[in-house]
Give the backbone structure.
Amino acid sequence: MEQDKQKKPINKKYLILIIAILVIITLTTTSYALFKANIIGGKISSVGTDKFELHFKEGNELNITSMYQKDEEALEKVDYFEFTIEGKYQKESNLDYLIYLEEVTKDAIIENVKINLTKLVNNEEQVVLQTTNIDELNKEENNYLLYSETMAFKKENYNPKDTYRLRSWINEQNIDLGTLDKDGPIIIEPKSYKFKINVKINEGLKEFQTLNSIILKDNLSKTTETTNGKESLYYVGNVDNNYVSFANMIWRIVRINEDGTIRLILQDGINNNKMYAYKQTNNTDINATYYTNSDAKKELESWYDTNLKTFDAKIAKGIYCEQLKVIYDKSIPVGSATVVLKDNYTPSFNCTTDGNNHGILSLKIGLLSIDEMLMSGIKFIPTESESYLKSNNNYWLGSPAGAANSNWTISMTWSYVANKYAHMKYVSQEDAIYRPVINLVSDIKVSNGKGTITSPYVIA
């Protein structure tokens, strides 16, 4: 009887997974081994330097009592090890770090050990490493890379925190647990499977650069034909390195203005490329051709309040030119303005008040001028050309093109004809998209990116 008690089978199958923590911080060429332990406990521990900390709850044994999970099944039931990486640095900069597994137990089980990593975002878990076998991870020497991340230190948050949850288990389908016999289930002895989490910073802190300083490295065209005679640098042709991510939208850099602010144009039209008239009512007089009197101005300022007001401190007031400078045909009425025919016109960024008392506007948002379009490489009708301002859509410009006469029955403004050239449109009865133009403050900084469509400059 006593012998039978001793042979009574144990039904619970389990594995104890022990995780040891190792944090290594590398700043420039100096490496600091901050913490190495295998501690059982319950308190929150913190280790770090003056710029970087790791917080974790001591007690890093994951007792997986039902550890033979089937891949993603019941993942939420699997024990996790939670750790938080906290930055603390009082300058706008980036810190790149990598999370590795090291000193992984090497035995026959490794090909069946599953690993999963999530990141807490707004208290919700987001998978950053899909469930995979450890031996399928990218391996660098004896380290297995789990995840890489960039921590951004910004004025609005100099103390960023990233919290992760790591889970690991064995795939039961690939484990030989033995065979049953008449005495009942085989007893599974507890085992320890060990690895270390290693958080590394492989580069020093990279302070944010100003967008101006980055642009100045490009081979931009230059002109002093500006409103105040100071130099402006601008992009010409079919460039592909002037993409900017700002306010959750993609923009293109047009130029560095004379005062150092940076002019951007939205890559697409507002409200999903909705088509608008420049004015809703038919007008034939000269005043209808000006941006000041357009419905476009009202619509864009309303859109600004909805979409950009929260970023207002990063947007400067800029010079928008509505001077009547160039016309398509000499028969077009221009009031008292002095103009040049399109075939004889030389564009510039200089803007003055015309004979109709219109010229320089100081605004937070507006439209591109005909001069800015021409300076980018776009030509007047009928010449087609390549430019980063080329679009599959017709879009309005903020430059007047003249009043109505017997040939042109409605007042006109300049526009871009899809995939072709600059041409005038009636302010009403014709539609096009609005591509808003804004000016970022001169000291605006970039957190990352290369200016390409796949890696735009990200405004900090």
About this structure: Residues 9-206 form one domain.
